[in-house]
Amino acid sequence: MPGFAAHLNFLTGSRDDASDRDPNVLEDWTRAASDFKASGSSKDVHDDIPPDVDETEWDSVVDIYQNGGTFGEHKSPLLSRLLDHPSASSLLEPLNILLSSERPNDAVSEELIEMLGFEAIELVMDVLSDRRTISQETSAYLSRSSSQQTGAAAHGSLDSEAARRRMEETLRANAARPLFSGTAEDMPEVLPHVYTSASMTQGNVLSTFGTKYMLPLGTTRVYQEDYEEVTIPPATAVAPRATERLISVSELDPLAKGSFPGYTSLNRIQSIVYPTAYRSNENMLVCAPTGAGKTDVAMLSILRVLDQHRSTSDSGVPIAGTIKRDDFKVIYVAPMKALASEIVRKLGKRLHWLSIRVAELTGDMQMTKSEIAETQIIVTTPEKWDVVTRKPTGEGELASKVKLLIIDEVHLLNDERGAVIETIVARTLRQVESSQSVIRIVGLSATLPNYIDVSEFLSVNRHTGLFYFDSSFRPVPLEQHFIGVKGKPGSPQSRKNLDKVTYEKVAELVQEGHQVMVFVHARKETVKTAMALKEAAMTEGLLDEFSCEEHPSFQLFRRDISTSRNKEMKELFDNGFGIHHAGMLRSDRNMMERMFEARAIKVLCCTATLAWGVNLPAHAVIIKGTQVYDSAKGAFTDLSVLDVLQVFGRAGRPGLETSGVGYICTTDDKLTHYLDAVTSQNPIESRFIAGLIDALNAEISLGTVATVHDAVQWIGYTYLYVRMRKNPFQYGMAREAVAEDPHLGAKRSQLVLEAAKRLVEARMIAFDRDAGTFTITDLGRIAAKFYIRCTSIEIFNKEFRPKMTEADVLGMLSMSTEFDQIQVRENEVKELEQMMETIPCTVKDGTHTNKGKVNILLQGYISNYRPEDFALVSDQAYAAQNGGRIARALLEIAITRKWANASAVLMGMSKAIEKRLWPFDQPLKQFQLKADIYYNLERFADDYTVGELAAMSAQELGELVRLNERHGTAIRDAAKQFPTVRITYDLRPLGSDVLKIAVKVTRMFNWSSKIHGSVEPFWLWIEDNDSTTILQLSHLVFRQSTTSLDVDFVISIPNGLPPPSVTIRFVSDQWMGAEDEVQIPLDTLVMPTSADSHTTRLDIPYLPLSTLKDPLLQDVYGRQANSFNAVQSQIFWSLVRTRLHSLVCAPAGCGKSLMGQIVCWQTLEDAPSSDAWCLIIVPRRSISTELLAELRPVAKLKAIPVDLLTTDAKLTQPSRKTIRVVTAANLLHMLSNLKHAESHRIFSQLRLVLCENLELLDPAYELCISTLLHATHSLPARYVGLSTSLNDPTDLAAWLDVDPMALHSFRPRDRDQALSVSMHTFTIPQSAALFKAMAKPAHSAIRGSPGEQAIVFVPSRGQCRSIALDLITQCALEMETARGYLPDHILPEQLDPFLSRIQDINLVDFVTRGLGFFYDSLTKSDRVLILEMYAEGIINVLLVPHDSCWTLPVRAATVVVMSTQYVHISRNGEERQLRDYDLEELVKMQGRAVRHHGAGGHFHLFCQAEVKDTFSRFLHDGLPLESKLLETGELRGWYDSQKSQGKIRTTQDAVDALSYTFLARRLQSNPVYYDATSGSRSEVLSRLVDQLNGDA
């Protein structure tokens, strides 16, 4: 050593240098001691030492180590070196056993290296060379040590030898003691598939804080004047194991063999992983160097999926014909778009023979449903797959079919984008567990140090699925050079040194006869670097060394290159240099690649795109500089490790050379970073915390996380969780935290609560702290859908206003944190200022802020301005790509907030960015017309609307734009294809303060599939008088077959006083300028008057059944209840004990139908004549079936027949007391054929007409009652009407001539039974995504009544199964069981008798999980069986289509209505239109939650946000009831029939007949609804008769 001070400096140097220090420091100390003694300087030191101490033994403290604790004994130098080992005391005995064994040296050498460490390999070699001697010395030493320790212990010796021995033991014990624990850790487990030549297997050689690994053995560090160079030699090859062999392709089965064309055998890595990859479904992590064949490992796992999805067909069928392509999807996640494209090309080519389609899904690319269906392998990026799996439908439906997820370059977990990889893996793992599906995960990675952690994260079994291959497995061994140039980064000196060292290395390699690829990071830099190298070589007089003129094909290549227009490329070629970058012509790039491959170019200066694209290897690669401009960040960033590994992967030419060299030239401050990263010194850590808030919001939006417990569990699937337990310091935790809480429940809860707090503050979620539940808000859902950060939402919350201009919107959009990376550079300001002068909107922030820059770039993009500066071009593309997405998100936010002005402006701005067209631009620019047509249109026809242009002839248009008729034809065709509509409306008041606006939108443009595709989406909304608030809105689509669409908007008219006007606005979702608006004046609107005719429910005692004074009825009905309920008791007297015409309007389930039946029995009982009869009219056949089932048991006991009158029955006078049940349509048919003379005789003994379900009054029902009223107006027939609660029953009661004393109109809330009503609103359009979003709250509603049954109403039969699967998934997520909703007390064997009777085998999987279906198309036996299992409590959840609510005979504690819209399909099947449920249907569904016995019911209504108020109002106040006679042709048919039969001869006859209709009364009360004018009843009906006669 040079001196003591230098040695101290050496010992106390920075931790970063620790890996490079000489490991044999003790030898330096020994030499220093010898020099000290030789100089004679030690004399004075020993003067005071007592004479009884041997002076020679105290030369140095080092002697304590070297002498092994004994004094005066001779030991060989080799034994001393062994004793110097830090773990000598514990290793000596097993070492002696190993050395004294009979095993050969080759067999024990590996174990010796494992014991002593790879750095002691020289010691191992020396020991093995003199094995017998060292074995004997070790045995003798152990014997002496044993006897001395025994003697010392026995006598407590205090002599110098014992003291020194104790000192030695203490020092060694201290040295061996772990830093943080009082106990030594277990030896790391040996894993079967870890192949490495290093001693630090399993990643156990860490620095003090577990953050750094040692550099490989043989690493050298050289300091030059201008730079520092660290050279890492190629890794020593790992010897093949006894069990290894290369697998020949001929051994593979036909499927695999055909997919490895041109291969004779798999390489070593592929052969090792083959049994796991192709013969099992194990999750895998394969860590191997770049170029080692990892893509083929992925291919093997893909082939495994194909093999598992083959039909067992005859041997004659080709393999491609046996693959079930629709049953699976494979997702390959690649980190870069360039790599994704390469993977698509490779896999597509290899699997083409199997007809497997491979497609790329990256960036803004979308895939249609048909494309998804046709594609088996989808290659995507982590971000895109995150977006896709956030969507429950469309692209998101991919996730349900995925069988294999391949994640390439998993080591990017350590990168900024690592959080996304954690997100998608955690989502996949949770999907596997919740849905019990099988998704195999295969991770591919470069060599990384803590591969065990990554395998744990990927749920890989480390003993079967983890494969680690160190850098020695590269196809060509690589020598790596890391050069750190001196000088301040970015300074002229630093750049000069970089140029100098680059030339030195290039020249050195070229002189050795090698080709070199120099990688730079900008297109211009390729030429600049090549020129600089050429000039330097010329200066040094070495230019001839670079020349390739002696190449046999030089002249041929020179002739080829002369055809290029690239001046620099031609100039450089003559001196042996080439250039290559993405900005060159494809032909020039191909030429460069061909010449370099043919060795006609010695130095190729290129960008990293070459490393990712073409496989063009060279002996040496040099990365010149590591600063790369990142347009996503708007700044220069460090070259990614992924790029470095990819470039280094191009070093060495497999099959042609036995070695390769890779240089990376960076600044000295970045040297350690790249050294650590490329050589895998640093364990990769999680970056998930940075993305936790947005990831949590996405999971809550998706419905996979609904509680704090769910979120804590979800974090348990991340790499963050794995690393927090291994390296808690990194994540702000004390080491004790892991010991105290091994599963880190508290830390995970803390992370969740902190993230939830931010989301709540941003109004993205609602968080119930008491219940620990999360609910997504519209803001949160929109942020997840459009990939908007929480920080951006926080800005929008402050800046977003109901009224904004285009400039305001652009200013706010530019504040989004997605643009934070875009920075203003001084050299760009001038061009930005020039751009700002040409753009239309004012930029408040100017050119000196990033917000201003983004704003300018966006406006420039819309205006089709292309910047000259290359960095600005990248920035503009980034701003436009993100700006369009953010504008769409802001549009949805404005719509959910019902902001009319902001929505209209944002609709225009989002289309402006997408179309690159301003709202004031000529709309026909969106068509492919010639430039001169555009120019002349703007010049001469700018004041014409598209509609006006479409109405003109081709000749007129040609003349208008100063062009010819052919140009006019092109303009006319475009104008006729431009989306335009005609909007008409009708006003329909539904009450004194509710107005329905029936809108008809008629398509007025010519459809072109090429231009319009399959659908044209648009928005239609009603906005208030000052265009501030959207009152109602709808998102609709035109199809080619659509001619018109009908939309009903229901708005509130406070206090019955309408506003001056409202506006209907039509806006295309895709076409700029395709807009229309219609103003609806309301100042003359006459609303119907309010009549408060409701009955107050009285608090009276319940009447006992004995009040009936009919023992038989008392006995029958007494089996259900002992008394009447409150409503029944209140109406009993007027209904049962009088003959007054009556009307009972009461909520569903209150027992009014029972009272109607009692009235029938009592009427017949009291009737004096023996042939008296009652007529019960029902609106539907299903109601008559239910009614007959209730009447016949009593009828049998009373011996009174109950007849159902069918279509072919004839209306006659019965011969005895009878009850007749008939549907309204059948009765109208009978009455129409009944002669006037017969009617009096037949109806003379009709004592009662009971009208059931009057809320379902349709034209047939109204006409049959009107005819009956007309026929019986002079007869003693009594009319009793039953209806659900109505908001105004006055006219209905008057129509039936009901006495005010007998009018009982109860509100919906007046029922006896408790019924809670909950309304859940959604803003997602009707789609599978909506039902995915509804699944979680539906499941929560079902679970809200433990032990009780539930009915779930869904829009259609086809959605029953998909919704059932979603509910089962939610159940599995919460309960972690596969039983679903099957009650715990039901054993599997109890199901067998029922399952054996099921005819539709598809029901079995659902029934075994406690779910059933009920709809008409099920076989009758299956319907009965389902109801039987429901009654037995086996089926807990019954799914029912909305139209089956009328036939469903059961009730439940919980009723959930999932959506209030359904798709109506026209008879020809071409028209599909979204319609709302009828209010009567909703009331019927609500009635299924009303139980006559037991606890209260729960009714959950899931609906669109805009209809909530309407439904809430009518469910609370009662249904509106209007006549429907004028809506169909039935009135016309009835009128013509009456005229033809002579029943109506004059206008007065017609007026008299119509005066008995419900319509006659409503025409007076609510004339606007029927487009009538006010007047007396006779006047109104006369006008109606005139209309009927006129239409005839």
TrEMBL record:
Record's keyword terms, sorted: ATP-binding, Helicase, Hydrolase, Nucleotide-binding
Region (Disordered): 139-160
InterPro entries: C2_domain_sf, DEAD/DEAH_box_helicase_dom, Hel308_SKI2-like, Helicase_ATP-bd, Helicase_C-like, Ig_E-set, P-loop_NTPase, Sec63-dom
Descriptive protein name: Sec63-domain-containing protein
Keyword Hydrolase recorded: yes
Pfam families, sorted: DEAD, Helicase_C, Sec63, WHD_SNRNP200
GO molecular function, one term: helicase activity
Residues of the Helicase C-terminal domain: 497-700
Upper lineage: Eukaryota, Fungi, Dikarya, Basidiomycota, Agaricomycotina
Keyword Nucleotide-binding: yes
SUPFAM superfamilies with a match to the protein in the record: E set domains, P-loop containing nucleoside triphosphate hydrolases, Sec63 N-terminal domain-like, Winged helix' DNA-binding domain
